[in-house]
Amino acid sequence: MPKVLFLVAGYGTRLQRDLxxxxxxxxxxxxxxxxxxxxxxxxxxxxxxxxxxxxxxxLSDMYLVTHHTAYPDFCAWALRHHLPLENIxxxxxxxxxxxxxxxxxxxxxxxxxxxQDTSLVVVGxxxxxxxDFSLRQFLAKEASLPKDSGGLVCLxxxxxxxxxxxxxCEINAQGILTQCVEKPSPHQTQSRLACPCFxxxxxxxxxxxxxxxxxxxxxxEALDATxxxxxxxxxxxxxxxxxxxxxxxxxxxxxxxxxxxYMACLKQ
Length: 268
Description:
alpha/beta; ten-stranded mixed β-sheet; two-stranded antiparallel sheet
């Protein structure tokens, strides 16, 4: 089984502004996106942890990378859910201005936890998949890939008006990535396939990621969006794809309320 890394080092500035402006939601101010209550669960992150646990991935094989301010919150959550505290990495940043960037956070966690030689599922901590996502089928597809594959990512179809808001990928007839562009104009690509931050990276792709970060240390733009790394790695090793029906991203208050209502309805 692969190990799992949750990226929970974002500062959620848009959400915090929305919460400050909403008297009925100010009690959530300061809470990291991944720790927002969702449906009948105490946190978005708990939804993912429960899913991976139900597929025999132990808590000892799940890791988090977060920033200094949120670190105590994730430690408190981990204690309640029996995730080892030593599996949480504090990247020591204090504000959005000195953030490392998501790709650099992945590298920091891989090096710190010595994950270079394992397959690793990287999950964005502000992302929720729709109810029909099958982790079992996702893992089964990854297991069927050739030994020299770099890994597996998810794709879903977006309408034209959303193309410029997400990372868009192009694939060949075999479902292998041939292009990945971060937030393109709809006129830049005919593809409408969006790629959420849910990547299974095999050791070959992990080695490329480590080198990518070393080569782009002076460019926050290159390290801020994980899709930029996909745009780099697909030409160096095969990245296969797995179709899903959609996702909900917790960006601001409106999308959080949508995700909360969606999960609450599923439990009824």
